[in-house]
Give the backbone structure.
Amino acid sequence: MNVNEINILVLAYLGDTIYENYVRRFLISSGLANVNDLQKAAVKYVSAVGQAGFLKLMLENNFLTDEEISVVKRARNYRTTSHPKNCDIITYKYATGLEALIGFLDILKRKERIDKIMNFILDK
């Protein structure tokens, strides 16, 4: 399977589940035991605003490879008319870019790179 032939939103769909799993495991390991507290803490990481912010921080710090930036741009530039009501379209597209990157890396079985990206995010 050629990962570049997979619809970028499908990669984002996959990446979203992987990303959220990392966040949930991180929050549980931090000692949070109440589901409501976990949900509130997760918003910082899983909201479109949070994801877009982390992606921009990675870009500013030259953390991503050229290949990874290409995937992010492909997702960011994908033509779509829908986005959540709680954020603007630009923020949504950056968040989609991060999710697509995680999905892309997962399809390529690059778990170590996903770990590094998620450690970058979860250390912030």
About this structure: The radius of gyration is 14 Å. Residues 34 and 40 are 10 Å apart (CA to CA).
